[in-house]
Write a structure and sequence with these properties.
With about 650 residues, the chain is α+β, with helices and mostly antiparallel strands. The strands form 9 sheets. Strands 2, 3, 5, 6, 10, 11, 12 and 17 form an 8-stranded antiparallel β-sheet that branches. Strands 1, 4, 9, 13, 14, 15 and 16 form a 7-stranded antiparallel β-sheet that branches. Helix 4 runs antiparallel to helix 5, helix 6 (about 365-385) packs antiparallel against helix 7 and helix 10 (about 490-505) packs antiparallel against helix 11. The radius of gyration is 25 Å and the shape is globular.
């Protein structure tokens, strides 16, 4: 069943291999023991290889969180992401017929292959066990996972070939070796799965793998909600530019960095407020919701003032919100300066967000803005019916809703990019519009007296749900972030929220099935085990846990926190299906998220309420291909140490669904 092959050998010796399979047809537990019974050291890598059947000659493969089929869409962007091309004999430009990846670069060290109704998967316990004297040149004793045209395999130690994908232009392979002295041994537990079914049967493999590891992996602690919320409010307000009334996207943890930059007439702060997605209305909603638990008139005032500003200033001629506000000049405590990220290509301070065309806006950004604004209106009508600002909010919301309903494609898609000047869809393909479904369903409760609008919304969201179903069923949900067209965990989250809301609205089982499929796919991005980061690193010192974190996307190899926003939906799926898997994984994600919030001044070298967007559980940098990393560059165990307002807002938004 398992063939063991020596590779990258520097010193050879006689090795004894013991392979002990045990189990049934669906899953076999395979215990492998490798002993050096020779007289000299063995130095090299070991491949534990499972051959694929001859009939499986062109399978669809998945490595959770990293490889989804050919990853073809990833190479359509300027940065070269890993792509699977079975016809290639010589790897080139991040394309290869074979890949090996370190466990820490995956959500689970597991590779799944499917063809013609049959599936085979190979996985392993993330860390191998060794006797005294056995040394690996990887500080973490982790396995690697890989595949070729006719095999699946596990590597000891982890190797990354033919390229290392670490977010920089340094794409050389990472070859690691283990030194096995005479008498030394290595033990590794493997899992071999064989099953029949359509491609979605990967969910059975991923769930079983998760449940197996759950017996030995400990998630982060779950904090008390009220003090956590108080800290989050403090952090959000630290991003509020009170004099100019907007939320700063990110600020450095350590203020001396900003002091040095201000002395040179510039800033490292990111002065941009997207109207949805990573700023704007979701942050306003977070403050309003938190103010229901944490007494803070400042939080409530900031939320109302920013919402009023966007509704009054941020509408385009089409009725859609602009995607962002970016000041041309920054007023700081240390003087007035040009905003270094302000582009001369912009047509003003209200613009297109992260899109290059100044007239375009992204469907997810605007849909998300409207979803949050609708939630704000419902919250204020319930708790503060005297708030006269709500009429302004309703008018702005309705203009957006009327615009998107008018632009909806006949087959149901809401489109990906819009021209905000002339109310036209300029790109249809993509899943960014999924969030219009929850936004419209929420909004229908606001305009309940308008029966024609209510019926129009109902028909619209059902058509949209059917239109986006092909993306979900093809395991290729993409297009949620403005700057990334690879499959992302955010896309999975948006699909989960959309189809759960559709199921509640219609009671139709097809939408429940789609919600389950979307959730299963989203959870392939979720870390099933705890990476062992360097003990002296910042994450090692705080004993952070990776279990429950989500890889941002197949192309952005860091763990992030967005999916706490669908906690409620995953819990509902457990209620609807009777499967505790969804609620358990939602709980672990929440625990992962909360541990990254600075709970007091000095934590992570920052301030109370600060929260970094990126904590690095593998060597990864989001700098792009033009940046050349120095010899000393090692990200694993570190954090970006820029606090991002959207991350803190996620905690405040999801807190009520995770009460303790």
């Amino acid at each position: 069943m398992i063939e063991i092959i020596k590779d990258h050998v520097e010193k050879d010796s006689k090795l004894n291999f013991e392979v002990s399979p045990d189990g049934g047809d669906f899953k076999k537990n395979v215990r492998v023991r490798i002993t050096n019974c020779g007289q000299t050291d063995f130095v090299g890598a070991l491949r534990l290889t499972l051959a694929l059947p001859e009939k499986m000659n062109s399978p669809w493969r998945m490595v959770p969180g990293f490889i989804y089929g050919e990853n073809r869409r990833l190479n359509e962007r300027s940065r070269g992401y890993p792509r699977v091309d079975s016809a290639l004999t010589t790897p080139s430009a991040m394309s290869s017929s074979w890949w090996d990846l370190a466990a820490d670069r995956t959500a689970s060290p597991l590779v799944f292959a499917h063809q013609d109704g049959q599936a085979i998967a190979l996985g392993g316990v993330p860390h191998f066990t060794v006797s005294e004297g056995v040394v690996s040149d990887d500080p973490e004793p982790q396995i690697g996972i890989g595949f070729g045209n006719n095999y699946l395999r596990v590597s000891i130690p982890a190797c990354e070939e033919p390229f290392t994908y670490s977010g920089t232009s340094d794409a050389e392979p990472t070859i690691r070796r283990i030194t096995l002295p005479p008498g030394g041994w290595i033990e590794q537990n493997l899992f071999v799965y064989q099953l029949a079914g359509d491609r979605h049967c990967y969910r059975l493999v991923v769930e079983d793998y998760y449940r197996t590891l759950r017996q030995s992996q400990v998630p982060a602690e779950k904090p008390a909600t009220a003090p956590l919320l108080a800290d989050a409010v403090t952090g959000i307000l630290a991003h509020y530019h009170q004099d100019d009334n907007y939320f700063i996207y990110s600020r450095p943890y350590f203020p001396v960095i900003e002091q040095i930059c201000n002395g040179r007439g510039t800033t490292v702060e990111w002065h941009q407020m997207n109207t949805g997605f990573v700023n704007g209305f979701p942050v306003c909603l977070a403050l309003l919701k938190a103010a229901c638990t944490v007494e803070s008139s400042t939080a409530r005032d900031a939320a109302i003032k920013v919402a009023n500003r966007i509704c009054a200033e941020g509408l385009s001629p089409s009725g859609l919100f602009r995607a962002d506000f970016m000041p041309q000049y920054i007023n700081s405590l240390n003087g007035r300066m040009k905003n270094p990220i302000y582009s001369e290509k912009r047509r003003g301070e209200w613009g297109s967000g992260w899109l290059s065309d100044p007239e375009w806006v992204h469907s997810r950004t605007i849909g998300d803005a409207c979803d949050s604004l609708a939630a704000m209106i419902l919250l204020e009508e319930k708790n503060h019916p005297e708030n006269t600002c709500v009429s302004l909010w309703k008018n702005a919301l309705r203009q957006n809703l009327d615009a998107v309903l008018a632009m909806q494609h006949p087959e149901g898609s809401y489109g990906q990019y819009y021209n905000a000047e002339n109310k036209a869809v300029v790109k249809k393909e993509g899943c960014g519009g999924l969030l219009w479904i929850p936004a419209l369903i929420k909004a229908s409760r606001i305009f309940i007296d308008d029966t024609d609008f209510m019926e129009n919304v109902r028909q619209s969201v059902v058509r949209a749900g059917l239109a986006y179903a092909s993306y979900v069923n093809n395991d290729n949900i993409w297009g949620a972030p403005e700057d990334n067209e690879s499959p992302t965990s955010e896309d999975g989250m948006n699909a989960v929220m959309a189809y759960c809301d559709l199921y509640e609205l219609t009671g139709e089982k097809q939408f429940l099935d789609l919600a389950v499929t979307a959730a299963d796919w989203m959870l392939t991005f979720r870390k099933t085990y705890n990476v062992r980061v360097p003990e002296k690193s910042i994450m090692g010192q705080y004993r952070l846990k990776s279990m429950g974190g989500d890889f941002a996307s197949a192309s952005n190899n860091h763990l992030h926190v967005f999916e706490a926003l669908c906690t409620r939906h995953l819990k509902k799926l457990t209620g609807w299906t009777g499967n505790d898997y969804y609620a358990a994984r939602a709980d672990e994600h929440w625990r992962f998220v909360c541990q990254h919030l600075s709970r007091e001044n000095g934590m992570f070298g920052g301030f109370r309420g600060a929260m970094a967007e990126q904590f690095y559980w593998t060597n990864w940098g989001s700098f792009g291909s033009s940046w050349r990393k120095p010899e000393i560059y090692q990200q694993k165990g570190s954090a970006s140490l820029f606090t991002a307002v959207w991350c803190i807002a996620v905690i405040a938004l999801a807190a009520e669904d995770n009460l303790t």
